[in-house]
Amino acid sequence: MRVEFDEDTCIGMYQCVAEWDAFEEDKARGKAVLEGSDETEDGVFVREVPEDEELDAKFAARTCPVDAITIYDDDGEQLIP
After folding, report:
1. Which of 28, 32, 68, 73 has a CA-to-CA distance to 14 between 20 and 30 Å?
2. What local confidence, expressed as pLDDT, does residue 36 receive?
């Protein structure tokens, strides 16, 4: 499973932080940060989700009020949102 995080879309509600510890608050910038991720050319942050954290990652994506977090399965099919 893979997560993609569009930091530009993030509005800093930090609901993802409460759901998955891979997200942290950056209060200085007013954005969440996806730890352990790599930035793509289009400014999206990507990382693999460990099996034991998949449920937390899904909850983080579902709670994001602006859909800045997208979850994909191992075949590249979009699961959330």
Report:
1. 73
2. 96
- CATH number, position 75: 3.30.70.20
pLDDT per residue as tens digits for the range 38-52: 999 998 999 999 999
* Tally of domains in the chain: 1
Rounded to whole angstroms, the Cα distance separating 52 from 38 reads 20
pTM: 0.93
Strand partners, 26: 31
| Predicted local confidence at residue 80, as pLDDT | 86
Structure tokens given for 56: 């937390």
- The torsion angles phi and psi of 54, rounded to 5 degrees, stand at -60, -45
**Which residue in 43, 13, 15 sits closest to 30, CA to CA?**
13
